[in-house]
Amino acid sequence: MEIPRSSYYDYRDRRKKIDVERLRLRAKATEIFNKSRQSAGSRSIMSKLRQDGEIVGRFKVRRLMKEANLVSKQPRPPAYKVAKVERPDIPNHLDRQFDVQQPNQVWCGDITYVWAQGRWIYLAVILDLYSRRVVGWSLSEKVDADLTIAALDHAYQLRGQPTAVTFHSDQGCQYASKSFRQRLWRYRIKQSMSRRGNCWDNAPMERVFRSYKSEWMPSAGYTSFDEAQKDIGRYLMDYYNWYRPHQRNGGRAPAVAEKNPILLSGNS
User: Fold this and answer.
1) What is the pLDDT of residue 79?
2) I need a surface site. Which of 21, 129, 141, 252 has the fewest CB within 10 A?
3) Where would I find the Integrase catalytic domain in this sequence (predicted)?
4) Residue 45 class from Cβ within 10 Å (0-12 exposed, 13-18 middle, 19+ buried)?
């Protein structure tokens, strides 16, 4: 094959040597991957490694993941049903303007369901669009207005009782209820609603739930309500807010980006 004998022996000798630096990087990549419950992909792992001062590119991270047999969970694509009818008494003030310049300008809220102890329980979450930080949440066995009010109360107190906030959600009956709207009025929060059946009008919230269910939630659900409450709180307020890289924030976690703000992109 016209290859110099010295080149062959050099290649063979190099294969026998242990690349300590590569092993170190692979171990760090594996640690990040495991901390994400096997959900982090090459982009997320690269962002975390760079934040730790490592000089590494995405292609190298992919090779490290392949060497360590790290395969990221991939979420199923959502099927959105689009409608064009708006609720006349609560307009869509947000109108997909997801690029917000300051904290506590626009909050988004939504509800999803979680399997625990052989039955469905319900999770309400509130997101600050500025850095995509989770600022409030609540878990309940009932999907009623009290669930959404508890999440709103949590956000209002946690964020220091802000004023001039716009709250956006879908047209669920919990958000359109008299008791929830009265709570918004008490907090002087302006209400905005998506068009009926149009999930893209509240895309940042859809992304949060997709991330939680594909990255963190146990495939078989939780064994009890208490276990679900502790694990969901850990994901939302710890892992998602302080550790999970977000493209909107240039690869930084929402709470980290909010604490040390830089120019944020307009990604949802």
Assistant:
1) 45
2) 21
3) 99-262
4) buried
How many whole angstroms separate alpha carbon 199 and alpha carbon 132? 17
Determine the longest span between alpha carbons in the chain, in angstroms. Answer: 83
CB 32 within 8 A of CB 49: yes
Residue 105: pLDDT band (50, 70, 90) is: very high
120 beta partners: 115
Phi, psi of 194 (to 5 degrees): -65, 165
Q: Using only the alpha carbons of the chain, give its radius of gyration.
A: 22
The SS3 of residue 258 is: helix
Cα-Cα-Cα-Cα torsion 50, 55, 60, 65, nearest 10 degrees, comes to -40
Tokens 């997909």 appear where?
A: 96
Helices H / strands E in the chain, number of each: 10, 5
The predicted-structure confidence for 142-194, as pLDDT tens digits, reads as follows 999 999 999 999 999 999 999 899 999 998 899 999 999 999 999 999 999 98
For residue 188, how many C-alpha atoms fall within 13 Å in the half-sphere facing its CB? 6
Q: Alpha-carbon distance 152 to 174, whole Å?
A: 12
Distance between CA 192 and CA 122 in Å, rounded? 22
Q: What is the distance between the alpha carbons of residues 204 and 183, in angstroms, rounded to a whole number?
A: 23
- Please, what sign has the CA dihedral across residues 112, 113, 116, 121? positive
User: Rounded distance, CA 20 to CA 17, Å?
Assistant: 9
DSSP string, 191-222: EEEPPTT-GGGGHHHHHHHHHHHHHTS-TT-B
From edge to edge, which strands make up the β-sheet containing 133-140? 133-140, 119-128, 106-116, 166-169, 190-193
Encoding tokens for residue 254? 């929402």
